[in-house]
Amino acid sequence: MLIDRTGQAVSKQSWIMLLLVLVLTQSCWITDHSERDTEVTTDAISFPASGYEKVDPSDLPKIVFEKPNFDMGTIVQGTKVDHSYTFRNDGGSVLVLTDVRSSCGCTVSKDWPKNPIAPGESGHIAVTYDSEGRSGRQDRTITVVANTTPPSTVLTLSGEVVGPANVTPVE
Questions:
Q1: What band does 125 get if pLDDT is binned at 50, 70 and 90?
Q2: Rounded Cα–Cα distance for residues 117 and 98 (Å)
Q3: Residues 160, 95 share a domain
Q4: Is residue 40 situated within a structural domain?
Q5: Which is nearest to 160 in space by CA: 129, 135, 142, 141?
Q6: Which end of the chain has fewer CB atoms surrounding its CB within 10 Å, N or C?
Q7: Which residues fall within 8 angstroms of residue 33, CB to CB, at 6 or more apart?
Q8: The pTM is what?
Q9: The pLDDT value given to residue 75
Q10: Residue 114 lies in a domain
């Protein structure tokens, strides 16, 4: 039995439950809630198509990436690589990105447009790859979900990670 500051006996199970609740509460605060920063309103979006009518494809938003594949080359384990994928809305209506997710926790995307992108305008999606604890050939994907047809676009990031023991010293 443990004694609290008021002199009351507190069971070990009560302390464990309290600790568990505190840990779970803290872990909820750690997650990224940047999606709440979105300023998309219904006025900014038009839906020119439904499944029951023919629509001119040029009226729909269209996301076009300059280079959807990025080769980071050979890097030393522990290196962080930053890259920005640039895109343009080549469609006829407003483009809205609804989600950007990577295939692995080692690749993080926190900077992507949260506001509608007008036809002809450009934007970028910034990602960071952390090679800590990785070695060998690395192939990662970043999935971009938007109001396009098809609704998702897959970007790739690849390269070779060499461990510190495999690095040849420069003389």
A1: very high
A2: 12
A3: yes
A4: no
A5: 135
A6: C
A7: none
A8: 0.67
A9: 95
A10: yes
Residues 131 and 63 in one domain: yes
Domain count, the chain: 2
| 103's tokens | 């295939």
| 113 in a structural domain | yes
For residue 110, the model assigns a pLDDT of: 80
Domain span at residue 9 reads: 1-31
Same domain, 73 and 155: yes
Q: What tokens were used for 128?
A: 């960071």
Residue 49 within a domain: no
Question: H/E/C letters for each residue in the chain?
Answer: CEECCCCCEECHHHHHHHHHHHHHHHHHHHCCCHHHHCCCCHHHCCCCCCCCCCCCHHHCCCEEECCCEEEEEEEECCCEEEEEEEEEECCCCCECEEEEEECCCCEEEEECCCCCECCCCEEEEEEEEECCCCCEEEEEEEEEEECCCCCEEEEEEEEEEECHHHCCCCC
93 and 24 fall within a common domain: no
How confident is the prediction for the chain on average, in pLDDT?
81
Neighbours of 118 (CB within 10 A): 12
